Amino acid sequence: MKIALRHTLGIVALFTLVPLINAAVHSRWDAATTYATLLIGFMAGDMVVWQGYLIKKQLAFSTYLELDREWNSQEMIEARKTVHAPGSEEWNLSRLEAILEFFEKLASMFKLSGDMPFIYQSTLGWYAAQYFLFADNHGQIKYLRQLWDADVYQDLEDLFTYYLQHEVGRKQEAQDRWKARHLAIEEKFWQQERTD
User: Fold this and answer.
1) Hey, which residues does 3 pair with through a beta bridge?
2) Which among 17, 79, 102, 137 has the fewest CB atoms less than 10 Å away?
3) ∠ CA 114-116-119 to the nearest 5 degrees?
4) Which of 188, 189, 179, 92 is nearest to 136 (CA)?
5) Among 166, 162, 96, 178, which Cα is nearest to 131's?
6) CA neighbours closer than 13 Å in the CB half-sphere of residue 14
């Protein structure tokens, strides 16, 4: 949205520049002063919008770094090792909820920060997609939603949908192939999580 506002301000400033030049060429100094004031105002507005966008991006990146640190913490590594036993239907629900809540924070940050590709293109974005896919495929998301009688992990589901669309597009066939490919290596994923 801020980018669109910047473009609008830039276009308006450009349309202000033409009358300014015309007024200056024809020595209409009162009009030229008015147009110059408008032009400077639009340029200042553009700068404010741009700085706001940069600050928002910087805050999102800073928050992402904190989440990355948390993901690689000893507590989270222990949770990842024991959340699901490879080759079984056994899930440690408290560990799964902790991990899904972690990814819900990532997904909420992505939703609030707007389209900042580094979030879903990152390693954390990849892990969020894998965990959501596997937990959903095993009915764990549905179970937790019924357990809490709430639509929990909706931001995470939205991030997963966004991630999937940017990986393979909107066609259902391509998305199903992507899911099948990743579900085929699920056991390897859980074994790797236990060895990290």
Assistant:
1) none
2) 137
3) 115
4) 179
5) 96
6) 6
Q: Decide if 83 contacts 193 (C-beta within 8 A).
A: yes
Q: How far is CA 60 from CA 101, 119, 152, in A?
A: 18, 9, 23
Nearest Cα to Cα of residue 136 among 166, 173, 164: 164
What is the chain's length?
196
Q: Which of 96, 125, 126 is nearest to 109 (CA)?
A: 125
With tokens 């300014």, the residue in question is 20
Q: List, as one string, the DSSP characters of 100-134.
A: HHHHHHHHHHHHHH-S-HHHHTSHHHHHHHHHHHH
Residues contacting 63, CB < 8 A, separation 6+: 109
Tens-binned pLDDT, residue by residue, of the chain (196 aa): 445 655 665 666 666 666 656 666 677 777 767 767 767 777 777 788 888 888 888 888 999 999 999 999 999 999 999 999 888 889 999 999 999 999 999 999 999 887 688 888 999 999 999 999 999 999 999 999 999 999 999 999 999 999 999 999 999 999 999 999 999 999 999 999 998 6
Which residue in the block uniquely carries the two structure tokens 């959501």? 132
